[in-house]
Amino acid sequence: MVVNACASRSIVAAALGFDKKELPHKYRDALNNLIEPQPTQDAPVHEVVLTGDEADLLKLPQMRYHDTDGAPYISGSIVMARDPDTGSYSCSYNRLMIKGSRKLGIYMTPGKHLSQIYEKAEQRKQPMELAICLGSHPAWCMGALFIGPYHTDERHVMGGLMGKPLDVVRGKTIDLDVPALSEIIIEGEVAPFEREEEGPYGEFTGYSAGQVKRPFIKVKAITHRKGAIFQDVCGGPHRELLLMSTIPMEPSILDYLQKNIPAVQSVRCPAPFTLFVAIKKARDGQAKQVLLTAFAADMQVKHCVVVDDDIDITNTQAVIQAIATRSQASRDLFIVPGVSHDELDPSRQEGKPISDKVGVDATAKPSLEIFAAKPKVPEEVMERIKLEDFVGGDSE
Ligand SMILES: Cc1cc2nc3c(=O)[nH]c(=O)nc-3n(C[C@H](O)[C@H](O)[C@H](O)COP(=O)(O)O)c2cc1C
């Protein structure tokens, strides 16, 4: 097995054929140049096909990353499902609790796209079919983690990132196309209305998510390459997981914001549920408009701060200083109580996936140009002072 395959920006960038500095820009190019998957007959992932009792999850590596985890988990697979109305696929990472030889617990954030497909399946009293893909090209990983409109098929983002279509083949026991070049595919379905305990599991928030009754997957088949590699991601607040999330999240949210408000210059996700946005403010109230748009861009944005673009948003101290010197809470901070949110937020309302949203307009008012003057040492003084007059020798 392998973990940490996507644990550095340089490695992910190299795998996509880019330099790491180009990564955000190239990601946005891919979003604007989507490529549909193409069917193929050449499917290494079907070299071995195991169905019925032969499809045994207990024969896979059993990874338990944290002392609080309730069972071995699969944390690094791409889960694919199809919208029953449009046929558009949703791809996402979802932790999978190994509950037995053919049963997996699953966590689907309420409101995220997979949970919306499952809600539609339940309304029709039908099971939701899933393909669970292990061993993925980094472009598939970054594509699956795209944040954006429900109807954007993430397989098209994967194609955009690779500059060529994702090769797909029909699953053996499900009516879904699966990546033909995966190492391993687990095929299964989630029955409507059935729930079982899932968790605890060490999460990206740095806390262990408790045990809750959730839907679960009945496994129908496991297919794999001969000698397949089991690729996983260590759950919890560790480098690979956090990088995998932020590499696609920042350009996805930037793309969404700039399409709506071109004054937006850059975004940064410095911590879970937190977003910084830098803008070139053109008018009063624009920062608050950006805040409202940012909350719409991704339901996981809980705390958002908007600053002027002279603030380096990669420097959290600079953002805190802007809050302290450019905002007044009674005028520039607003709270929207009780909004649908990730239930992994340990401070959420008891038992409900609901949190308060906080927006802070930390831009200079009314504008940066006429805000308090910034002092600097006069240039004439800087030119007059020669370092070597004080320390002597080579100033290099
Ligand atoms: C390694 C990893 C594990 C993740 N585990 C989960 C999970 O268990 N449940 C979940 O809802 N999202 C999880 N996520 C986040 C989603 O995959 C991500 O928000 C995705 O973009 C959701 O897809 P959607 O925007 O199409 O709804 C995980 C992300 C990573 C990188």
Can you describe this structure?
- By secondary structure, this protein is an alpha+beta fold.
- The protein folds into two domains: 231 residues, Pnp Oxidase, Chain A (Roll); 101 residues, 3-Layer(aba) Sandwich (UbiD C-terminal domain-like).
- The strands form five sheets. Strands 2, 3, 4, 5, 6, 7, 8, 11 and 16 form a nine-stranded antiparallel beta sheet that branches.
- Helix 4 runs antiparallel to helix 5 and helix 6 crosses helix 7.
In terms of topology, how is this protein built?
Elements: H1 9-16, H2 23-31, E1 38-39, E2 48-51, E3 73-74, E4 78-82, E5 89-93, E6 96-100, E7 103-106, H3 113-123, E8 128-134, H4 138-144, H5 154-162, E9 167-170, E10 177-179, E11 184-190, E12 196-198, E13 201-202, E14 208-209, E15 212-214, E16 216-224, H6 239-260, E17 264-271, E18 274-279, H7 286-297, E19 303-308, H8 316-326, H9 329-332, E20 333-340, E21 354-361, H10 379-384, H11 388-391
Parallel strand pairs: 1-9, 18-19, 19-21
Antiparallel strand pairs: 2-16, 3-6, 4-5, 4-8, 6-7, 7-16, 8-11, 9-10, 11-16, 12-15, 13-14, 17-18, 20-21
Helix pairs in contact: 2-5, 2-6, 4-5, 6-7
